[in-house]
Amino acid sequence: MGDRYNILSQMEHLQSKYMGTGHADTTKFEWATNQHRDTFSSLMGHYDLTNHLAIAENESKARIKFNLLEKMLQPCGPPPEKKSED
What we know:
The protein is an all-alpha fold. Helices cover 65% and strands 0% of the residues. The protein starts with a helix and ends in a 15-residue tail after the last helix.
């Protein structure tokens, strides 16, 4: 029983520390947004992947990085409207 509590407390710590790990109340939209942002940051962070995209899209590396940064603002479009609890 002690091991289970330890694992759960470690998960709670990770979820509070890193936004992308999700939690019980994470919506589909938040999960998809985190996945897209992780992908874009990985593409920007790996030099060879940035070069590959630049060649494939016939753009400069700086333009590719700029476009990826812009996509990170709202990668899945505007957030859905939340239902009010009356």
